[in-house]
Each structure stands twice: as C-alpha cells, then as structure tokens.
C-alpha cells in the first residue's frame, strides 16, 4: 500500500501564519519603542562633559579618603594623593580629565578635593571652571 502524507487542514496553516505575523508585528513594535530609548541612553552615557567626569572622580575619591581614615584612624596630610596609593586605598594616582592631579586640603575632619579645570589654574569659566567637593570624615575614636 502506498501511504499518502497527512495533510493539515487549511485552517491550521492560516492559524500558524497568523501567529508568525503577530510575532513579527510585536517584534517590530518593541524595536520601534525600545530603539529610541537605547539611543537616548547611549547619548546620555557618551555625552558626559569632562566636568561631569571630574565630579564623579571626586565622589569616588571621597570614598577613598573615608576608607583611609577607617584603616588608619586619621586623615592624610594635605598635599599629594600618593599617600592614598601608598596606603593601598587607590591603585593608581588619580588625575582629572585634563590629566592634572587632583588637589586636596584637610582642616580637622573636613576635606576639600578639587580640580582646576582645563587650564590647571584656580578660577575660570566654562572649561576652565574649577570643580570641587567638600565633605567631613568621621574619625574613629582613639
């Protein structure tokens, strides 16, 4: 006997085709909605200014100062961030986005960190504007 291949009813094929078209429509809708969101997120990440990056660096350096104080019971003397590298708190010497070292002063428990901006000199406007962060560090009791 000769077997004939089984055939699916036409309604089943139409149903499968409809499912496939629906899936394609959903995919295009998702790409249409999420595509611009991805572009916006990518734009916001790639378009940080150097001043924004310096502010972020200063925030991270604040954490390094607090860790140093927790480990040693004191703040580093004002001057060079190499003290934090020597203590193992920073892996490398931190420099600002203009490739200048960050500066800091210590007054009691208060630390002021700053960058002099693009020109490397105090003051200025625009790209030359200074970026600073001041914070207090809780020192452990002695």
From TrEMBL:
What residue stretches are annotated with the Type II secretion system protein GspG C-terminal domain? 50-132
Gene3D superfamilies per the UniProt record, alphabetical = Glycoprotein, Type 4 Pilin (3.30.700.10)
Q: Name one Pfam family in it.
A: T2SSG
Q: Which UniProt keywords apply?
A: Membrane, Transmembrane, Transmembrane helix
Q: Does the keyword Ligase apply?
A: no
| Chain ranges passing through the membrane | 20-45
Stored InterPro entries? Pilin-like, T2SS_protein-GspG_C
Keyword Secreted in record: no
Q: What is this protein called?
A: Type II secretion system protein GspG C-terminal domain-containing protein
- Source organism per entry reads Pyxidicoccus fallax
């Amino acid at each position: 006997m000769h077997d004939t291949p089984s055939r699916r009813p036409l309604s089943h094929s139409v149903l499968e085709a409809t499912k496939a078209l629906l899936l394609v429509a959903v995919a295009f809708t998702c790409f249409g909605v999420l595509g611009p969101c991805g572009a916006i997120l990518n734009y916001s990440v790639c378009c940080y200014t150097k001043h924004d990056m310096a502010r972020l660096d200063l925030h991270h350096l604040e954490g390094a100062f607090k860790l140093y104080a927790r480990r040693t019971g004191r703040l580093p003397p004002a001057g060079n961030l190499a003290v934090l590298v020597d203590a193992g708190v920073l892996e490398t010497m931190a420099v600002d986005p203009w490739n200048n070292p960050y500066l800091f002063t210590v007054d009691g428990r208060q630390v002021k960190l700053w960058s002099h901006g693009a020109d490397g000199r105090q003051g200025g406007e625009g790209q030359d504007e200074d970026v600073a962060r001041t914070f207090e560090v809780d020192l452990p009791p002695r």
